[in-house]
Amino acid sequence: MKVYYSDDSRGITLYHGDSRPYLETRADESFAAVITDPPYTERTHSKFRSLSGEDITEGITDFESFNDDDLAEALAECGRVTRGWVVATLDYRQAVMFDVIPPHGLKVQRVGVWVKTNPGPQITGDRPAQGWEAIAYMHRAKGRSSWSGGGLAGNFVLPRPEATGHPTPKPIVMFRQFVEWFTQPGDVVLDPFSGGGTTLRAAADLGRGAVGIEKEERFCEITAQRLEQQSLAI
Fold first, then answer.
1. Whether residue 17 has pLDDT greater than 50
2. Are 63 and 216 in contact (CB under 8 A)?
3. FRET label pair with 165: which of 69, 171, 214, 222, CA 20 to 30 Å apart?
4. How many domains in the chain?
5. Which pLDDT does position 51 carry in this prediction?
6. Cβ neighbourhood burial of 209 (10 Å; 0-12, 13-18, 19+)
7. Residue 206 lies in a domain
8. What is the pLDDT of residues 172-185, one digit of tens each?
């Protein structure tokens, strides 16, 4: 584990390495919230389809997948180190499973959706394309949850972002909304699977500190470059 990027003035740190040893060393309730996009299942990765111009990408081989037990264990650790919320984009099967049997120490308060206005195609043509992903809004099992969204729904209708160099980028406006809803200015957010850096960028844009951890160095470089840019529009 090494520091790959640090900006003390904004309280942003990105580590290159495996998040598991890092989480094990953190005290309970070390962070205001966890906002993350963990690896999906092998089934979801293998069925990934992306259309860019005339090129069709099939499957994701760029990073490891998580099975149900891997993800439940990781989210349980996230629940231990947060003071409140763990918000994660998930394979919809896992989101439903956790709604019934939550990771240890967490409760699922709501399952939302991100509906894509430009989804990837269903190559086989024998069924509709998926076109959406699940969002699990989880909270520490102990304690009452609160957020700043009032009576709003936790659903989004947004396009997939333009290519960032990461195979599964998420909309920056959606992650900014997560940061606004579930943290306060000056809080520190954790993303143990920071990927292309969307959580860290959203936190920086909104005056929150953030700690990100990413196993793949090429994705750390993408994150560092994004953090050096001005505020991102999409």
1. yes
2. yes
3. 69
4. 1
5. 46
6. buried
7. yes
8. 999 999 999 999 99
In a domain, residue 6? The reply is yes
Q: Please give the Cα distance from 204 to 227 (Å, whole number).
A: 8
Which domain range does residue 147 map to?
2-228
234 located within any domain:
no
Question: pTM to 2 decimals?
Answer: 0.89
Strands of the sheet with 12-16, listed across from one edge: 2-7, 12-16, 209-214, 188-191, 31-36, 82-90, 132-140, 106-116, 156-158
The 3-state secondary structure of the chain reads: CEEEEEECCCCEEEEECCHHHHHHHCCCCCEEEEEECCCCCHHHHHCCEEEECCEEEECCCCCCCCCHHHHHHHHHHHHHHEEEEEEEEECHHHHHHHHHCCCCCEEEEEEEEEEECCCCCCCCCCCCCCCEEEEEEEEECCCCCCCCCCCCCCCEEECCCCCCCCCCCCCHHHHHHHHHHHCCCCCEEEECCCCCCHHHHHHHHCCCEEEEEECCHHHHHHHHHHHHCCCCCC
* Domain containing residue 206: CATH number: 3.40.50.150
Closest alpha carbon to 138 in 113, 103, 179, 172:
103
